[in-house]
Amino acid sequence: MSAGLDKGEMAARVARDIPHGAYVNLGIGQPTLVADHLDADAGVVLHTENGMLNMGRAAVGDEVDADLVNAGKIPVVEPPGAAYFHSADSFAMMRGSHLDVCVLGAFQVSAGGDIANWHTGAPDAIPAVGGAMDLAIGAKQVFVMMTLFAKDGTPKLVPDCTYPLTGVACVSRVYTDLAVFEVGGDEVVVVDVFGTTYDELSARLDVPLRRG
Amino acid sequence: MSAGLDKGEMAARVARDIPHGAYVNLGIGQPTLVADHLDADAGVVLHTENGMLNMGRAAVGDEVDADLVNAGKIPVVEPPGAAYFHSADSFAMMRGSHLDVCVLGAFQVSAGGDIANWHTGAPDAIPAVGGAMDLAIGAKQVFVMMTLFAKDGTPKLVPDCTYPLTGVACVSRVYTDLAVFEVGGDEVVVVDVFGTTYDELSARLDVPLRRG
Amino acid sequence: MSVTICESAAEAVAGISDGSTVLVGGFGLAGMPVRLVDALIDQGATDLTVVSNNAGNGDTGLAALLAKGRVRKVICSFPRQSDSYVFDGLYRDGRIELELVPQGNLAERMRAAGAGIGAFFCPTGVGTPLAEGKETREIDGRTYVLEHPIKGDVALVGAHRADRMGNLVYRKTARNFGPVMATAATTTIVQVREVVEIGELDPETVVTPGIYVDRVVAV
Amino acid sequence: MSVTICESAAEAVAGISDGSTVLVGGFGLAGMPVRLVDALIDQGATDLTVVSNNAGNGDTGLAALLAKGRVRKVICSFPRQSDSYVFDGLYRDGRIELELVPQGNLAERMRAAGAGIGAFFCPTGVGTPLAEGKETREIDGRTYVLEHPIKGDVALVGAHRADRMGNLVYRKTARNFGPVMATAATTTIVQVREVVEIGELDPETVVTPGIYVDRVVAV
């Protein structure tokens, strides 16, 4: 299997599909990288579920303010045009489907658009869900950004999730290092392929694919 | 029957029972008069359901501002320490039992504390409820202020309301021109009598009374 | 998606369809988006359901819209006012439908629509005619009635200032229903006194973030 | 009833009973009322249920309260953090109970407690282990799960400024859970950076009106 996209390239690929002027929540971890690839002229407004719209970039040096952090608890800056609100208002905004796009990491996504990203199901794991379940069902479109295969080579795009679910039939697109998929319909559509081939993907995945 | 209290005296009698530091909503109409009898030192804070705490007195002359009105749509003033909020927050405050006292007018109150104050039930009447039902169930204590008898001489403190209800078993005290009653328990307790006698009240009312 | 700053109230209300549910802000005239309502009269949409605290005053604004026969149904808490004769006449003639909703339920049902809540158990109105036919449930010893969201196709809101991202601030008790209505409609159209540049509103004081706002016009 | 301006954090937390449910504000350390939590450790109440977004960081504050064995149960959305080893240890040893709640449900359930809502149908968590055993209902083609209020006996909130009527303003994302927790508890205790005179806060910018606040201490 040849090399596909690296993390930065994946983030850039996701950024390309975010419409101008969209309100977007980027989940903690890799999805945060998408912000670096958004065109400043595109007018994309970032939401952070701890209570801010038009969240800015990571703070550096003297900009760091303990009262101003993102959902990953990383200090950020306040651009002009920002707005603050409390947690109930923030999740009402999310749950009420006012965000255009949410980008999440995942352990598994099913062909039907189910997502598992909060719990490995391991008996000794300490479960933590945060805003993941609210995000999964809250945005008009939910994008997942993940490697297509786990370190042990097992696919993370699966017929049915085996890990505990975060949300049911809520993901619309899956951005991976090797391909971009549309999920949630009758078939999984391969929209884009990187450093591999459609046939190779078909052979390695247990979900029926269709060329996009 | 001798004359009891006039409207101003009734309002003063209600004001006497409002605890220092209480958060209070005064319904439109006669209950509004209670504000004139609250001691400035008592620290009573008035709520108006259209979105303000620490509402001030009626505005006069140049003070009138079309953006600043009370629930009766009368212009009022903004004292220091006021706060504004939207209608959902205002009624959440009420419904969540954060107000200490609410004072309402009524067509009828039952011995059990039911109140009817929004609709006469007349077939050609145009119904209007406003915040009455929210107020009736919202405050920790609901006081009613009304004349004890209608113009035709029928009692307004009744065994059971015949007018459409505003709220069930929610009134604790009824302030009238002739007496003050505690309702909502097993018996109606006469707390205070003005210009009449307990026996006279017993004779004219259909509810069993007890001396307070 | 991004807010459009409109040149006129007519541009702001363009495209409202017949049969729409229109949320109209204001408590009496405080916060009432009078110019947007006037523009809606000119725009011509009919067979409307109007959701507003009151049902119009005098001959202008909402009352004028009603008088032109463009409103099929009013959902409100307090239609009857000293100068609500237009509504009164239509109602008595059976020419307009009324859904009377306690004021707090009106606000909370729109809040639910905006917040993605499917329904909620509410204590207001239990045991009264306004709860008749609705599901009730006892929870922790108190009886509640199940209330459902009120969604709008369009919200017409009056605010004080907007910035070019659509962030809004209101003024005094004119805030009232504006912030909840802005969240509860597919398209939120706002009349303000002034549109300011991005950065001129303090982010701590924004009441309605721009995400809820589609079109703004300064009048 | 009126707010008490306290001289010390110890005075502010006086009287919290064993077995209380304590809502603790903050998202990580932003908005965390650290001094009130420290004072609660000294105060001695035990067998507590703590409701907070996280379950403590490092060895201080909430983590220190947990380490002293004073917390029977934690209701939170995200206990596991890089430095949550105190909670992790107690949980693995079966010495603390955990109710894991999606963050939006945590906020909305406290909002419901403060707003007098008996229960609400929520789309979050449907079909997941966190909705198991809960009532579900299809409304307008979408499935919802019934969620109930979370009430506190006490809320410990960190805000920016208070006036002497208890009106509060917050600062930036430190606002987070403070405003909902203040509404959801019988007794709300607030740590602020500064207490100002009545009239020094702009009434348009007050986030938590004084009606929700019982005690304030400047630290």
Characterize the structure shown.
Chain A has 212 residues and is of the alpha/beta class. Chain A has a single domain (7-211), classed as Glutaconate Coenzyme A-transferase (3-Layer(aba) Sandwich). Chain A contains four helices and 13 strands. In chain A, a hairpin with a 3-residue loop joins strand 10 (171-175) and strand 11 (179-182). The two termini of chain A are 21 Å apart. By secondary structure, chain C is α/β, with parallel strands linked by helices. Chain C has two domains: 4-101 and 150-218, Glutaconate Coenzyme A-transferase (3-Layer(aba) Sandwich); 102-149, no CATH class. Chain C has six helices and 14 strands. In chain C, the strands form three sheets. Chain C has an eight-stranded parallel beta sheet with strand order 1-14-12-9-2-3-4-5, with helices on both faces. A three-stranded antiparallel beta sheet of chain C has the order 6-8-7. In chain C, helix 5 packs across helix 6. Chain C is globular, with a radius of gyration of 17 Å.
